[in-house]
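User: Sorry, what's this?
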Amino acid sequence: MQPITGLLPSTNAQCRNARSDSPGASPLALTPRRAACYVLAGFESDRLNKNTTLVFRALSLLLACIAVVACTTPPVQEMSDARQAIAAAEQANGVKAAPDSLNDAHRFLADAERQIQEEAYGQARMNAVRAKNRASQALHAIQSAAEQGAR
C-alpha cells in the first residue's frame, strides 16, 4: 500500500489550488483533496480559536462559581416571601377555605427552616418556594370562593 501524503494538501496554498485540481468536475463536488482542505481548515481555526476557548472556559467557571455561591447562602428572600404569602392566606381566612394548601405551605416552610439549620440551603430554597406557591394557591382558592359566593 502506498502512502498518500503527497496527494493530500498540507497548507492553505495547496487548498486554494485544490479548487482547480479537477477542471471538468462540478465546483461543488467533494473530492478527497477538498475534504482534506476542510479538515485542515478546521484544525487551523481551532488554533485561531484558542482565545475564544479560553474565554468560554473562564465564563463557564464564573457561572459555576455563581451557582455554588447561590446554593451556599441561606435563602433569606425566599423564606421571607413564603412567610408573607402564608400570612396573607391566613388573613384571608385560608384556614377554613383552603386548609390543605395552607397546611402544605406550613409543612414546606417548617422543612425549609429545618434544612437551613442543617445548612442544606439548596433544598431549603426549594421548600421555601414551594411553601410560597402553596400559600398562593390557598389565597387564589379563597379569592375564587369569595367571587363565586358574591354571585
Q: What stands out?
A: Helices lie at 12-18, 32-48, 50-72, 76-91, 94-97, 99-117, 121-150. Residues 73-150 form one domain. The two ends are 91 Å apart (CA to CA).
